[in-house]
């Protein structure tokens, strides 16, 4: 059976499963939203596909992102795993970095390893920092350990040996021996995931992979066989935390690479929209029920980081894998507002979640949330939420706001509601700015691309707060991550630690190292089973001045290596250091800690059908009456538009509300909105 | 009255000043050259009012809570407000002003708006070297390095190059020092820029008024929580091992806390007088001790850290105490003793605030310094090894946390061992938790750590660790954890015993090694009340040995299966009550070295285990030494 041409993307989130399907022959994009079915996740995917009206049998590609990997870590529902580790270092996974961020809290806690101490075993082997062998590995010891672990019923084994990034021989041998001793176990070794120094972070990474491996691999297989049962004959690809795709087979081995797959796809989608619209610098802003997340697109590239922290900072488990740099703020539609002990108005991070939900859901919640405040201000319509599927109770919202905020602070209801939204918006603004400013970028020069259920509702206010002048609300903002997957490319990332001073850099050796990483990347891309259009390679170096600790990743053009141009590399590093930190030291020597390689296999991108072109004035049918909306202390009788009926070229002056199924866009007085040819709402923000 | 200020604006300003200090912190950390700043986070940045009140501190380290504010006040006094001008950047490392040591270079930038001084941005950070004697114990300030009085590093935008040249000539690694200096300047300039943005956006009067409201709110919260503490006078004492000069002469730490209504007084008058060795700190730190303890008990999670929170706290500390030392007292290792002062305040309030306090912790950075010539490039190297992380005390409802930095430190990281080995001619043989180091209790103290570091070339090492003898105490019937230790392995032989945990300027040959062991935390509540299932779990995980489970917890486990022998456990627990009571009574006593005869009369049921507690038999043993010395 030949695979079809269409593509199906499914994003499994905590509450909803979003499906997007795209048929290149018609340019038709169809969307479906189904409730996530935790006990049998593939069920939700199947009903999502049904809702799009497409057929798995027609699909050539199935693209998938899921919270299963991260939830397995956060909810501690993974396998019984063991960790084998260099002798003398059994406890480094538990000791961690010994920091105590919550400095005054005597009831502080630290991270909890996924693998308890009793399942961590020492191995008598040792490499030096140079990669030389100090104590050789004894295969018989591994074999014995493997036998014991098998008898104990261990399902997964992680291996971490010190300095394996300089010499993986011991880890490779241990892996082979373990696989022989326990053929049914999931075996993972640290250098296959990260060839970067930092033993705790690498231990945490490989332990996480072992812990989630069996469950995630089983889940992927289940989806695969279910889809095959539905007649699907195409390739199954999974979104990584970088926003790149990797094959279903690789995903089963390197599960920690898909921890942030949903949010990453959203950022990649924002990047694709920006590319279409000629936007170089943008903030991809995703606001949902409990949190807001932001990723950065700078000069057309998505900013990434080398380590993701899973869980709150104080107790986080690090995963040393390239990841889109996403900042998360505990502010969402469901965030609860309260008056603190000292009399301050605070919002979040506690959230009413889906149950009991905001007071206006009338499901038993009596605490005021950001959503309640928006309802009181008239920005949400009581009868229009989720396309009218759910009625909101404005009286319940008012009661909660009055009882918990306005009354105690001696404010009127509207000031309280405005206050809640404003506090929420400034919190998000600080969160967003922390990412840009820590990179030396000025957020004011960026376009805000807002999506997620609550993103469009707050986008214009957030833009004002940050000093952003242009906002873009893409199509299908409520299904954006699923749509984003259609824009992802195949990608393979590799990082390898090689401490060397730039002056001592041996270009020949680096060429060999990069060449090896790129060869692996090309192989991985070939094995994905999808013909990639072309393959691009990128090289970067993690650099610092001699004596510094923190590293700056510098993208280095290939020609600098070809010309063996040390000075050009140094100049580039000085420039990036200056951009990022405001200082540089051109007179000082630089050193390199790690090499980063990324290999991208470009896939053809969907091109959506263009929106019908209309006049400046939206068609009459798009107008959906008016509502009284508070903007600050003033009210305005605000026209409401139905996004489905807007056409490219339409212009709307604020104040206005643009409603669609899963979200509402707010235009402030003075804001000007244009629908562009791609169907995006482009808002030029007044006074920002 | 500030009542009329918009509560929404107040919240925005609250988030705003915290974002400013966070960004200052980020910029400092990322541009600093020395590992003590970027990994150990040995710095603090902050925003202050025009008269030096703390508005927000980006931590950094808790005991730095007063250093910057007092420095700004001293600078205002020195120059007079009218002589501080736009473009000025002030600098000092005066140890008796910062309250700490000369390594703490403190830069303050006055922030002007429309020509008026409205605030200060300040950054205090630890330079790895400021000259002075290398290693050993110093006995006066002059041997500790360059002293910079309160001066202008920059005057109206022009840097004082003479000063820079003097600094360069007085420090061992000038490039690093200059790197750190640049990082600090970047930090204070960031603070200025962002604070001015806030002021421009929301209005100067409004922002400054909002700051006052934030402080008033903090004060209200602090008063409300202090009111909840029963009125009374609470006292406790502890002691430090010695000052490194008079070895074996303990140094008393005695605190008195008075609670009356919504006010608290912390009286440190009876803390030891200043000492000969370098463990002194200045009066700024005496106040910081009281404030850190007070904040931990009353507003641990309230931010920003600001001076409003301390308006109802009075600190009494006459000059000349070990935490209020006067010139020319040596100050280099200033940070150790204050931690025990803080812990002793918690101990004093153990009965008044059982649900807020914590049992004793290891209370030392447990760092070591190694220097020598690296054979790879023939250059001098100075390796700062630490912090190790140690055990924390248990609480009313939770076990203590293992392997975490002491209370002097905050978001302070250890260094990746792989990086240390790549950078320095050292081999880390081991980094592990110490079984049985946590104080037994209904809630167990956290475990300490041990590390063994081998020299791959001839080196000199220093460790100035205290609290080897005053073990982290238990509370409410909990027992003490183990103390801090340092041991040397020379020519393949480990030390049998050392008088204290201070190893000063010791030469190690290639192949020699040293071990650092941090103490465990104290327990909370009687170990005989710890559910047997939890004890079994601890044994299974190797946090507690099976023998200790029986001896201290009265829980008898099957040696093979670790099943709980219920009947034997009931008998053991009943029989152990008087033994346990004796142990509780013996806590806090100074080390008893037992005679050989006494050693044979161990408490009932006591098996030949490596015993680490004074309350038990007073013997110290190092289990890892017996069976392993790698290769």
Structure write-up:
The complex is a heterodimer of chains A (688) and B (631). Chain A is an alpha+beta fold and 688 residues long. Chain A has six domains: 6-73 and 217-258, ATPase, nucleotide binding domain (Nucleotidyltransferase, domain 5); 76-211, 3-Layer(aba) Sandwich (Dna Topoisomerase Vi A Subunit, Chain: A, domain 2), CATH 3.40.1360; 278-331 and 424-485, Nucleotidyltransferase, domain 5, CATH 3.30.420; 335-421, no CATH class; 490-601, Dna Ligase, domain 1 (2-Layer Sandwich), CATH 3.30.1490; 620-684, no CATH class. In chain A, the strands form nine sheets. In chain A, strands 13, 14, 15, 20, 23, 24, 31, 34 and 35 form a nine-stranded mixed β-sheet that branches. In chain A, strands 3-2-1-4-11-12 form a six-stranded mixed β-sheet. Chain B has 631 residues and is α+β, with helices and mostly antiparallel strands. Chain B contains 15 helices and 20 strands. In chain B, a hairpin with a 2-residue loop joins strand 6 (151-155) and strand 7. The longest helix of chain B has 29 residues, at 174-202. The interface between A and B is large, with 71 and 90 residues.
Major beta sheet, strand line-up of chain B: 2-1-5-4-3-6-7
**SS content category of chain B:** alpha+beta
Number of helical elements of chain A: 17
Radius of gyration of chain B: 25 Å
Oligomer: heterodimer
Question: What is the CATH level 1 assignment of the largest domain in chain A?
Answer: Alpha Beta
Spatial gap, N to C terminus of chain B: 73 Å
Averaged pLDDT of chain A, please? Answer: 91
Low-confidence parts of chain B, pLDDT < 50 over ≥5 residues? Answer: 592-610, 617-631
Helix content of chain B: 25-40%
Largest sheet of chain B: 7 strands, antiparallel
Shape designation of chain B:
globular
Shape of chain A: globular
**DSSP strand (E) fraction of chain A?**
25-35%
* CATH architecture annotation name of the largest domain in chain A: 3-Layer(aba) Sandwich
Query: What is the share of helical residues of chain A?
Result: 25-40%
Q: Strand tally of chain A, please?
A: 35
Q: Tell me the structural class of chain A.
A: alpha+beta
Number of helices of chain B: 15
Report the C-alpha radius of gyration of chain A, rounded: 26 Å
């Amino acid at each position: 059976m030949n695979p079809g041409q269409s593509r199906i993307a499914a994003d499994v989130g905590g509450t909803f499963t979003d499906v997007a399907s795209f048929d290149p022959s018609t340019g038709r994009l169809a969307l479906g939203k189904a409730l996530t079915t935790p006990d049998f996740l593939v069920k939700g995917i199947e009903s999502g596909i049904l809702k799009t009206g497409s057929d798995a049998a027609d699909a050539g590609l199935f693209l998938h992102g899921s919270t299963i990997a991260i939830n397995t870590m956060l909810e501690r529902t993974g396998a019984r795993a063991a960790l084998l580790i260099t002798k003398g270092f059994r406890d480094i996974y538990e000791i961690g970095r010994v920091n105590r961020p919550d400095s005054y809290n005597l009831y502080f806690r630290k991270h909890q390893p996924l693998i308890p101490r009793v399942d961590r075993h020492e191995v008598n082997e040792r490499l030096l920092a140079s990669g030389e062998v100090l104590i050789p590995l004894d295969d018989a010891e591994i074999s014995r350990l493997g036998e014991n672990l098998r008898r104990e019923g261990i399902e997964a084994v992680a291996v971490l040996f010190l300095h394996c990034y300089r010499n993986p021989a011991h880890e490779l041998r241990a892996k082979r021996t373990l696989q022989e001793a326990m053929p049914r176990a999931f075996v993972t070794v640290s250098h296959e995931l990260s060839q970067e120094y930092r033993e705790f972070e690498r231990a945490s990474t490989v332990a996480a992979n072992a812990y989630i491996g069996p469950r995630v691999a089983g889940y992927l297989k289940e989806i695969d066989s279910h889809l095959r049962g539905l007649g699907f004959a195409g390739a199954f690809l999974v979104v990584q935390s970088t926003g790149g795709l990797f094959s279903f087979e690789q995903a089963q081995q390197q599960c920690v690479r898909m921890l942030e797959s949903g949010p990453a796809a959203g950022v990649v989608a924002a990047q694709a929209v920006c590319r279409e619209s000629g936007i170089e610098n943008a903030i991809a802003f995703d606001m949902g029920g409990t949190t807001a997340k932001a990723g950065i697109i700078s000069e057309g590239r998505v900013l990434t980081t080398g380590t993701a922290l899973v869980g709150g900072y104080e107790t986080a488990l690090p995963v040393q894998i390239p990841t889109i740099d996403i900042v998360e703020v505990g502010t969402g539609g469901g965030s609860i507002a309260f008056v603190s002990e000292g009399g301050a108005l605070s919002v979040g991070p506690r959230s009413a979640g889906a149950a009991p939900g905001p007071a206006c859901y009338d499901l038993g919640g009596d605490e005021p949330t950001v959503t309640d405040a928006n309802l009181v201000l008239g920005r949400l319509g009581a009868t229009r939420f989720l396309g009218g599927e759910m009625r909101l109770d404005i009286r319940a919202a008012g009661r909660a706001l009055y009882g918990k905020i306005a009354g105690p602070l001696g404010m009127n209801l509207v000031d309280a509601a405005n206050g809640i939204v404003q506090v929420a918006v400034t919190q998000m603004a600080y969160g967003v700015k922390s990412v840009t400013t820590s990179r030396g970028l000025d957020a004011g020069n960026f376009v805000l691309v807002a999506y997620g259920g609550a993103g469009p509702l707050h986008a214009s206010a957030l833009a004002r707060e940050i000093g952003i002048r242009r906002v873009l609300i893409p199509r299908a903002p409520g299904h954006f991550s699923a749509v984003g997957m259609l824009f992802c490319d195949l990608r393979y990332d590799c990082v390898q630690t090689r401490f060397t001073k730039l002056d001592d850099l041996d270009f020949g050796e680096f060429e060999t190292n990069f060449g090896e990483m790129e060869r692996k990347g090309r192989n991985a891309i070939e094995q994905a089973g999808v013909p990639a259009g072309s393959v691009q390679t990128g090289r970067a170096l993690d650099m610092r001045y001699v004596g510094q600790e923190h590293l700056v990743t510098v993208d280095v053009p290939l020609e600098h290596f070809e010309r063996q141009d040390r000075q050009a590399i140094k100049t580039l590093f000085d420039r990036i250091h200056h951009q990022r930190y405001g200082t540089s030291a051109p007179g000082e020597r630089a050193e390199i800690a790690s090499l980063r390689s990324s290999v991208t296999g470009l896939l053809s991108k969907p091109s959506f059908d263009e929106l019908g072109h209309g006049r400046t004035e939206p068609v009459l049918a798009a107008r959906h009456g008016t509502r009284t909306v508070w903007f600050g202390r003033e009210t305005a009788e605000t026209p409401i538009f139905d996004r489905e009926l807007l056409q490219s070229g339409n212009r709307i002056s604020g104040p206005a509300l643009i409603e669609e199924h899963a979200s509402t866009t707010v235009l402030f007085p003075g804001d000007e909105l244009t629908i562009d040819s791609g169907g995006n709402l482009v808002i030029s923000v007044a006074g920002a | 009255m500030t009542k009329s200020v918009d509560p929404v604006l107040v919240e925005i300003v609250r988030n705003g000043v915290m974002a400013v200090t966070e960004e200052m912190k980020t910029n400092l950390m990322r541009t600093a050259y020395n590992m003590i700043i970027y990994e150990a986070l040995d710095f603090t940045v902050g925003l202050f009012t025009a008269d030096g009140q703390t508005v927000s501190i980006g931590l950094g380290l808790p005991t730095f809570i007063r250093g910057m504010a007092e420095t700004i006040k001293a600078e205002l006094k020195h120059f007079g407000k009218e002589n501080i001008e736009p473009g000025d950047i002030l600098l000092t490392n005066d140890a008796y002003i910062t309250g700490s040591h000369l390594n703490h270079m403190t830069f303050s930038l006055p922030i002007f708006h429309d020509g008026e001084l409205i605030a200060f941005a300040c950054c205090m950070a630890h330079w790895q070297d400021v000259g002075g004697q290398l290693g050993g114990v110093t006995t006066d300030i002059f041997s500790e390095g360059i002293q910079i009085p309160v001066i202008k590093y920059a005057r109206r935008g022009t840097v004082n190059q003479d000063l820079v040249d003097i600094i360069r000539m007085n420090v061992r690694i000038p490039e690093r020092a200059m790197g750190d200096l640049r990082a600090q300047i970047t930090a204070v300039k960031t603070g200025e820029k962002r604070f001015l943005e806030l002021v421009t956006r929301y209005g100067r009067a409004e922002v400054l008024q909002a700051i006052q409201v934030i402080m008033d709110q903090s004060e209200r919260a602090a008063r409300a929580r202090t009111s909840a503490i029963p009125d009374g006078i609470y006292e406790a004492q502890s002691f430090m091992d010695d000052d490194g000069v008079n070895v074996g002469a303990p140094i008393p730490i005695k605190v008195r806390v008075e609670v009356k209504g919504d006010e608290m007084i912390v009286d440190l008058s009876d803390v030891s007088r200043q000492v000969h060795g370098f463990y002194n700190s200045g009066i700024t730190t005496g106040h910081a001790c009281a404030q850190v303890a007070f904040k931990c008990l009353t507003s641990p999670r309230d931010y920003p850290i600001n001076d409003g929170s301390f308006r109802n706290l009075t600190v009494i500390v006459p000059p000349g105490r070990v935490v209020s030392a006067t010139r020319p007292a040596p100050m280099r290792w200033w940070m150790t003793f204050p931690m025990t002062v803080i812990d002793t305040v918690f101990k004093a309030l153990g009965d008044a605030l059982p649900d807020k306090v914590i049992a004793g912790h290891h209370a030392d950075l447990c760092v070591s310094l190694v220097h020598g010539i690296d054979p790879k490039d023939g250059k001098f190297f100075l390796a700062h090894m630490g912090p190790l992380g140690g055990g924390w005390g248990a609480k009313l409802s939770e076990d203590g946390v293992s392997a975490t930095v002491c209370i002097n430190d905050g978001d302070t990281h250890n260094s990746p061992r792989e990086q240390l080995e790549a950078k320095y001619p050292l081999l880390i043989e081991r980094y592990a938790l110490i079984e049985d180091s946590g104080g037994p209790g209904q809630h167990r103290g956290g475990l300490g750590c041990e590390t063994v570091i081998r020299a791959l070339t001839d080196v000199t090492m220093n460790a100035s660790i205290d609290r080897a003898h005053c073990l982290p105490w238990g509370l409410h019937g909990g027992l003490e954890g183990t103390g801090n230790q340092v041991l040397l392995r020379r020519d393949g032989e480990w030390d049998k015993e050392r008088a204290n945990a201070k190893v000063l300027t010791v030469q190690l040959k290639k192949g020699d090694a040293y071990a650092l062991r941090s103490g465990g935390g104290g327990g909370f509540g009687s170990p005989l009340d710890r559910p047997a299932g939890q004890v079994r779990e601890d044994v299974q995980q190797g946090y507690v040995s099976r023998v200790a489970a029986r001896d201290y917890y009265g829980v008898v486990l099957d040696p093979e299966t670790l099943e709980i022998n219920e009947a034997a456990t009931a008998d053991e627990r009943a029989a152990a009550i008087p033994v346990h009571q004796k142990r509780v009574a013996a806590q806090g006593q100074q080390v008893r070295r037992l005679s050989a005869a006494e050693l044979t009369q161990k408490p009932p049921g006591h098996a030949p285990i490596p015993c680490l507690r004074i309350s038990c038999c007073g013997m110290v043993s190092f289990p890892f030494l017996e069976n392993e010395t790698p290769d």
